[in-house]
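Today's session is about reading a structure prediction critically. Students often jump straight to the picture, but the first step is always the sequence itself: look for stretches that repeat, for charged clusters, for runs of hydrophobic residues. Only then move on to the predicted structure, which in these notes is written as discrete structure tokens rather than atom positions. Here is the chain we will use throughout the hour.
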Amino acid sequence: MTFIYKAVTATGEKKEGSIDAPNKDLAIAGLQRRGYIVVSIKGEEEKSVFQMNLFERVPMRDIVILSRQIATLFDAQVSALKAFTMLASNAENALLRRKLTAVSDDIQSGTTISNALSKHPDVFTEFYVNMVKAGEESGKLNQVFSYLADYLDRQYALTSKTKNALIYPAFVIGIFVIVMVLMFTLIIPKLSEIIMASGAEIPIYTRIVINVSEFFVNYGLFVLIFLVVTGFYIWRLSVSESGKRYLDGLRISAPAIGKLFTKLYLSRIADNMNTMLSSGISIVRSLEITGAVVGNKVYEGIMTDAVGAVKEGKSFSDALDKHEQVPKIMVQMIKVGEETGGMANILKTLAAFYAREVDDAVDTLVGLIEPVMIVLLGLGVGTLLVSVLVPIYNIASSGF
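Below is the predicted structure for this chain, in token form.
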């Protein structure tokens, strides 16, 4: 159980943070062992609804900056306790400030940095913790935090660019759908009354528009219910293991964006493996962690299969070769790395290659989507207006 506390030291310095303990008495005892005088302490679940921030999170960008700051402080021979205490006091993000305070408290009580970080998986991933653990074992913590900052920066830039490329068309299409629904339910019915009352001959395309409008007016509620039920079903599907795997499979096989996501995941796998192997982490552990953080159930399964194959004595390249989701060029390059002993360098090259591929794919996708959307939106709105305005113009011209 996590407790939030406020305390002061013997010198009068104020301390705030969180501590994990089975109950409040043990939490107070733990703080007193650190030399703290407890002012207030309460379990996280005791916070009121108004004190909770359901949207509180630590952005990836803050973790990148934090990693660079830690590396700089370690280079300057600042102790781990002092470094995390300084960073906690200067953190702008409230959640990150609480987490760093808890980490510094754990370090003060004798816990290793990796174990202290592992208590906060919502901020420090398994990949991050294992990298720090490798740095502790090798005595190269400053280098490891530099590696982490560079790696997270690359992943942040790559993922952000991909998401931003898909947000724009999704936003435009969403607005278009809303406008069309409003037209069919509010505007077209009023205009269709005028057209029908005139008794004039109605073109076939106008009849189609009027019938679609009547459908939305009469059955729009059922359509809305159907969409809500479908959305709920997709959500339920996305939280089950089999559903996640199915949806992740669709993501990498989709006609327009499948190759983009495939390259994104391949870049992430190569970059993860390179970073971890360069830090001295074993290939089996690197594969296990890469599978956990790759973000796609299909590739997570491939990494899991590779773990079993490597444990049986097979090579990493042979384990990948039987999966069609992994390009042959990637398998061949990894095989060369295994034969020459330069696996980390090969993976670094592959990560850079697929990162460039993602950049090119995003630029191409954006370049194609924009004109296609403009043409389709223009045709949709134009057809709707012509279908309604031409009959009205004919009515006005005939003297009705």
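Discussion point for the tutorial: Residues 141-198 form the longest helix (58 residues).
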